[in-house]
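debug: dumping io for the single-chain case to check the tokenizer round-trip. Nothing else runs in this session.
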Amino acid sequence: MRYDAVIIGAGVTGSAIARELSRRQGTFLVLERASDVCEGTSKANSAIVHAGFDAEPGTMKAKMNVEGNERMTQLAEDLDIPFKRVGAFVVCLNEEDKPKLQELYDRGIANGVKGLRILTGDEARAQEPNLSDRVCAAMLAETSGIICPFELTLGLAESAAKNGVKFQFNTEVENLEKTANGWLLHTNQGDVEARTVINCAGVHADALHNQVCDKKLHITARKGEYCLLDKTAGGHVKSTIFQLPGKYGKGVLVSPTVHGNLLVGPTAVDVEDKEDTATTALGLADLQEKSALGVKNVPLRQVITSFMGLRAHEDGDDFTLGETAEGFFDAAGIESPGLSSAPAIGAYIAGLVAEKLSLPENPGFDPIRKGTPRLNELTPEERAAKIRENPAYGNIICRCEEISEGEIVDAIHGILGARTLDGVKRRTRAGMGRCQSGFCSPRVMELLCRELGMTLDEVRKNGPDSQIVLEKTR
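debug: decoded output
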């Protein structure tokens, strides 16, 4: 089959473009080398919807960030995902740095950001009592918010799939070949023909771009480590707390999450290995030291896990968006504020492709996607009714997050259903609590086997090489 457009990468950017393309009539395919959506940069970041004050005015980062932020409220409602505008403080720790805070404010105003205010240290502490005593001034960005990166990506992808976009996982694009009618993509699963190609390959986007474009890109993997704290620490701050940006970005933040935890991070270290996702003792110690500069008494003894993500930093320090070769479109160099910008990037790139191919509107496009109902979000009456309807909802598998068998089965049989332990974890939060899968993972594996007809030795944590049970059990 020959597709009108093939998107390479099922992260938040690729999924956003896929959803926007599904507003048009055409044939569209997303190729993802991993076993699920959101397995790369999109899954491991600060989970912040930035207001848009940080990027240089006139850049694509600035434009896409502000527009993406504005789109997020309606998008979250349409996709049935959690999103909260909790606001953000950028704290100034030294009197001599106050001019830099003013510069940041002026940049935000130039970018069109609404709801910015400069506060004194005391005014900021009145709203956030746990701010450090060193904070002498702060900028409040009221439109900043928090979101779940996986739920955003999954919501976009499921909406796209619901509207006709095909997704193919465990498929890596190895080479691109220009043809008279478009492109031939050589993958590890066979060849795919396309009229247009959209490159959303994250830290590997430069390799694909450089195969077909004269003007080369160079993407560096920028490593960021995080600590996630238990829900008992989730109220330590109500808003996201940034420190004044330095050479490598916004520095260490402290932020609540939409699920009630507390997040601290990231570090920023450039690495050569684009597959290096290991945390380090040095990096985590750096987080602990730097987080205390802006927020006092961060309860770091309540850390339940740490993780690391790679950001795709392009040497030009801006997003590369648009048609960079005939029929080849880039969405490359998507680092922070990529998550915030994804809705706008999706609309922008999909618009360019639709115009090039003269794709008519899809009259059957449905913007509404309903997520799997969460029992712990229902009223007692609604929960009781759900359990009467199906007793599996009364069988709790994950005690930390109170996730039932029924919810896990729903996740397995969803539009883009879970096929791995991590797939279930990210769709339902089974295994994301204090014990970090210590008790529930064997039962989740049994459910995967029962529902998908697998044996335990076929269950994977995430990709093909993440086998958990090494021998077949009877």
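debug: round-trip ok. The mean pLDDT is 95.
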